């Protein structure tokens, strides 16, 4: 299995980051929606602290993923896909990346504006990124929730497109994002090398 992306498929690092982030987002969104209804007390504080720590982890993984994408390039579009569909896919991918950064940052902002401290799994402190401000806290909370539902909508369309390619067009779009043994995509190709464009 290739570490780096090739012209034909995603390498193991991109795949691992993609699916790890998907799993973390599922857990994070579920906990985020559920935790607000918990009764006030130490358990609620603990769940909030975990939500924040996992959220910061997603932020770090998203940054890592973008750096890796810049370094390792990406596969060519699957042959036969019309140009306009390739353009829409690219646009939606960059929107997903933007949301992966903006959602945790809005969480960090709402936490700072509320005047709460921020730690990563109790191991170290992170600075506030805004001064305490009730109006900003309310606004950032709205934005945090809105961006989350935007991500849910875009990711649902994105996953539907992946299944459509797999089930109806029967092309390699989905399998090339899965570990090698799941696909029969032919021999490994040379690494994308130093291609650093973001086409
Ligand atoms: C990708 C990462 C994240 C996702 C998907 C996510 C998702 C959510 C969701 C769905 C909610 C419930 C929204 C509502 O119904 O009002 C929520 C609430 C919250 N999130 Fe996040 N979150 C993420 C990262 C963060 C981070 C990094 C922080 C802080 C550093 C944070 C702090 C909070 C807080 C404090 C609330 C509760 C707001 C309230 O009391 O109304 N989140 N989050
Ligand atoms: C939180 C949910 C998700 C997020 C944030 C997300 C994000 C992304 C991003 C940003 C890319 C573009 C990679 C790049 O060009 O660098 C991508 C590619 C891909 N995603 Fe997702 N994804 C999610 C869920 C899913 C699900 C549920 C599926 C399938 C069932 C899926 C299948 C794929 C496939 C097949 C590709 C490769 C497309 C190609 O080669 O052109 N994703 N994803």
Automatic annotation (TrEMBL):
Assign the protein's first listed, main location to one coarse class: membrane
Cofactor(s) of this protein: heme b
Please give the Pfam families that the UniProt record associates with this protein: Ni_hydr_CYTB (PF01292)
SUPFAM superfamilies from the xrefs? Transmembrane di-heme cytochromes
- Entry's family note: Belongs to the cytochrome b561 family.
Gene3D superfamilies, sorted: Transmembrane di-heme cytochromes, Chain C
- Subcellular location, record wording: Cell membrane
The record lists the organism as Luteimonas vadosa
Q: Which InterPro entries match?
A: Cyt_b561_bac/Ni-Hgenase, Cytochrome_b561_oxidase, Di-haem_cyt_TM
User: Where does the sequence pass through the membrane?
Assistant: 12-34, 54-71, 91-110, 146-168
Q: Which UniProt keywords apply?
A: Cell membrane, Electron transport, Heme, Iron, Membrane, Metal-binding, Transmembrane, Transmembrane helix, Transport
Domain (Cytochrome b561 bacterial/Ni-hydrogenase) spans 9-180
What topology does it adopt in the membrane?
A: Multi-pass membrane protein
What's the protein called, per UniProt? Cytochrome b
């Amino acid at each position: 299995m290739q570490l780096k992306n090739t012209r034909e498929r995603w390498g193991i690092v991109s795949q691992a980051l993609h699916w790890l982030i998907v799993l973390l987002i599922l857990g994070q969104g579920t906990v985020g929606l559920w935790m607000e209804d918990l009764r006030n007390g130490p358990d609620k504080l603990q769940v909030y602290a975990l939500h924040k720590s996992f959220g910061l982890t997603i932020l770090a993984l998203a940054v890592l993923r973008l750096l890796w994408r810049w370094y390792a390039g990406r596969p060519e579009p699957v042959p036969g896909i019309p140009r306009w569909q390739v353009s829409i896919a690219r646009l939606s991918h960059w929107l997903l990346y933007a949301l992966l950064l903006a959602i945790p940052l809005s969480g960090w902002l709402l936490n700072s504006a509320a005047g709460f401290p921020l730690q990563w799994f109790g191991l170290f402190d992170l600075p506030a990124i805004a001064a305490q401000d009730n109006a900003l806290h309310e606004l950032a909370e709205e934005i945090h929730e809105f961006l989350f539902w935007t991500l849910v909508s875009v990711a649902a369309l994105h996953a539907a497109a992946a299944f459509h390619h797999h089930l109806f067009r029967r092309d390699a779009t989905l399998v090339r994002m899965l570990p090698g043994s799941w696909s029969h995509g032919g021999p490994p190709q040379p690494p994308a090398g130093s291609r650093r464009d973001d086409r």
